[in-house]
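Annual report, structural modelling task.

Input specification for the magnesium ion complex:
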Amino acid sequence: MAIIVQKYGGTSVGSLSRIEAVAANIIKTRQQGHQVVVVLSAMSGETNRLLDMAYALDKHPSNRELDMLLATGEQTSIALLAIALIQRGYSAVSLLAHQIGILTDNHFGRARIKSIDNKRLLQSLEQEQIVIVAGFQGVDIEKNITTLGRGGSDTSAVAIAATLGASECQIFTDVDGIYTADPRVVPTAKKLDCISFDEMLVMASLGAKVLHNRSVEYAMQHNLPIRVLSSFSAGNGTQVVNQNNEEWLMKRQNISSVVHQQQEVMININKITSNIEIAAIFSTLAKENIEVDMINQSFYSAQDEDVAQLICLNFTIHKRDQHKVIILLEKVTQTYPLLEINVVENIAKLSVIGVGVTSQVGLVFSTLAQKNITISLISSSEIQISVIINEIDLIEGLTALHNAFNLTLLT
Ligand code: ADP
Ligand code: ASP
Ligand code: MG
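The model returned the following structure:
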């Protein structure tokens, strides 16, 4: 008898009939003799509905109160699932994060899990209960409710699986595994049997929302395999594993996937005269914990100015930080009044991921050039190359890269 941790996402519990289907799946696992811990998301659309209500009242609602509000979505779904299981004659208990001591830091809206006290979980399992835990939420040291960031229930599940010493964490979702590209955008994308933690971490960080990036980080730290499966159909899904895993070593591809992301805006600043101004810009943002993603600076000749060359700076930030960043940059212009600040919306980031990407950079550029797609920013690492393009070119660019790297031919 093993402890099995299963997480079901929003679409998987999006209606009462879906909750009944999930209950049936859990019962099947229980009947195989396993102890089951289930982590749930809110019903699909619920977190957005709650957010819309908050923003209707205040364009910049308090982060603490937002977390208090958003955490209610998961409270509903866990209680409904427990009711469905009890109705079927099974002993089940739903638990909120504070009831099982999921302690986080106090970064409302993107809190990190620090520890989980597994006493209550183990007690309930010993009493043969199916334990249903609210994903996405935690509690800080002052007992404020926190949330882990959109998609954070994956991280709750992996953290709980690690705490309980489970041999794998099963993430049930609305696709049957991890694909070479988002299968909803690139229909020719292929399902992978397994992928390494490193590749998946880069994929998730660059926008593949099939797994929350911190869930992969956590799984990697604890060497805990994740399996992504469909809650709608049977199958083996995709395993996310350590780089020493034999199956991965046998099946690994030089390029594993292409990923897209539409969550960023580009900040363009012109008329910079020196590095001192650039330092002032980034230290102002850093003080407020603003994450800057891609950065590029270029020089252009000054006309009618006292200096020979001016600097143009472009960088990307998450859309959620746009308002705050503009306020911060306006403060910088009090010291440097000549700076010209623009926000470029409607951009998309495309990334090619795989251990062999550094030797194939040329193919990324030639493929996009053939499609007349303009690149505004570039970044790369050992395992990834990313470009910022106009959002309107997203599907064409993503499909072209997917074809160019032969990902449609993977078996
Ligand atoms: P859940 O609500 O179950 O957490 P999510 O919407 O967060 O589900 O994640 C599943 C979605 O991730 C899929 O519907 C798919 O559109 C998207 N996705 C993005 N990239 C990939 C990929 N490479 N492989 C599979 N799914 C992907
Ligand atoms: N309900 C949260 C969200 O919609 C958390 C999750 O689904 O993982 O982002
Ligand atoms: Mg998700």
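The chain has a mean pLDDT of 95.
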